[in-house]
Specification:
Bound molecules: ligand 0UX, zinc ion
Number of strands: 16
Strand order of the largest sheet: 4-14-13-12-11-10-6-5
Shape: globular
Number of helices: 15
Radius of gyration: 20 Å
Oligomer: single chain
Strand content: 15-25%
Distance between the termini: 46 Å
Largest sheet: 8 strands, parallel
């Protein structure tokens, strides 16, 4: 069961407000999806995720297939039951991971042979197998098995990856059969406009219920990513959700929304939290720095999250320096709350037809310019 409804479109940019309805509940878009690689959003319990307003989380085929195995998770009643997260889950197909394993993998038309990063054992992912694993996990939204080229990449290489991704998308669609899970197609094409057009055209013909823009946020300069978005999002069906994979930082989220993107995922907030960096309305703050040793303010004076309501920078710095688990939990709670709260302010701004102003004000503050 899956439905996307558009509620409002901005008059002065491509930002839009929508609702995705799935078997495990509804999602308000634009949305940021916290990432839970190993069936957990690191350092967070489902209750804490719920408390900070997470509506949907991401998990991953590649990692869960290797450990603990999709069969075990299926026998546990699927991923929702296994990790006790009863809201929507999106799984990535593993395409991105196996291709980023570098020379640990061999690509053929039938699929990708790769060595496990855990124990070096040999495995093989075909479009059908990646789809079968996601069906066993029982996520609400599954992704087709695609080939994500690196950046930079020769045009001819990108063209081959687009054609293979298209053939693999069809194979995923032919194989897919699940009573509530839907498949999203993933558009490739690197930074080549004509290849983005042919990838989009081929996938739109297959009539997926939603589309991801892949092959970006792989090291290309941000202005180039924005240029690709400018011509790619308008080619995608207006009435279907658009998911920009692997993005991102607050500025990229806001730019993506302005260009018509509805869904985002990024490991950044949880990853930088673990090395003591937090996002605040005044920009990034590296709380482990000595400057904060005697700073008894909250991480972000404008934030009302559990970390900012109960603890000081000095205390959190102390915990991080001492490698205390609570330290990472507090910075993670804050960073996820920051992005989830940012997206809730974005939805409010679109509702009140003042999104571009909101974006400019936020960026001025976040980049440290005085109002
Ligand atoms: C960062 N930039 C970027 N990411 C990208 C991803 C992964 C999205 N995040 C899922 C993921 C990926 C890793 C890390 C975590 C957990 C799990 C394994 C699932 C998020 C992508 N995934 C697919 N299938 N295809 C892409 O083109 C792609 C491009 C990306 N560009
Ligand atoms: Zn906070």
């Amino acid at each position: 069961m899956f439905e996307f409804k558009l509620h409002k479109e901005a008059a002065d940019c491509s930002a839009r407000l929508g609702t995705i309805t799935t078997a495990h509940g509804t999602i308000q878009t634009p949305i940021f999806m916290p990432v839970g690689t190993l069936a957990t959003v690191k350092a967070m319990s489902p209750r804490e995720l719920d408390e900070i307003g997470a509506q949907i989380i991401l998990s991953n085929t590649y990692h869960l297939y290797l450990r603990p195995g999709h069969g075990l998770i299926h026998d546990a009643g699927g991923l929702h039951k296994f990790m006790n997260w009863e809201k929507p889950i999106l799984t990535d197909s593993g395409g991105f991971q196996v291709f980023s394993l570098g020379d640990l993998r061999k690509i053929t038309e039938d699929g990708v042979e790769f060595r496990s990063h855990i124990d070096g054992s040999k495995h093989f992912f075909s479009p059908e197998h990646a789809t079968e694993v996601q069906m066993a996990l029982g996520s609400d939204i599954a992704m087709t098995f695609d080939q994500c080229p690196p950046y930079p990449c020769e045009r001819e290489e990108v063209r081959k990856a687009v054609d293979r991704t298209t053939r693999w998308a069809q194979r995923c669609l032919d194989f897919h059969n699940h009573d509530y899970q839907v498949l999203f197609g993933i558009v490739q094409g690197g930074v080549y406009r004509d290849l983005r057009e042919s990838s989009t055209e081929a996938l739109v013909k297959m009539d997926f219920p939603g589309y991801a823009i892949g092959g970006l946020s792989v090291g290309e300069p941000k202005p180039l990513m924005y240029e690709v978005l400018d011509y790619t999002t308008p080619m995608l069906p207006r009435e279907k959700p658009r998911y920009l994979m692997g993005v991102g930082t607050p500025d990229a989220l806001l730019e993506g929304v302005a260009k018509g993107v509805d869904m985002f995922d990024c490991v950044l907030p949880t990853r930088i939290a673990r090395n003591g960096t937090v996002m605040t309305s005044q920009g990034k703050l590296v709380v482990r720095n000595a400057a904060y040793a005697r700073d008894f303010q909250p991480l972000d004076p404008d934030c009302n999250c559990y970390a900012c309501s109960n603890f000081s920078r000095a205390y959190i710095r102390h915990l991080i320096k001492a490698n205390e688990i609570l330290g990472f939990r507090l910075t993670t709670i804050h960073n996820l709350h920051f992005l989830l709260d940012l997206m809730s302010k974005v939805r409010q701004a679109i509702t009140e037809e003042r999104f571009l102003q909101f974006k400019d004000n936020f960026m001025r503050q976040y980049n440290g310019e005085q109002k």
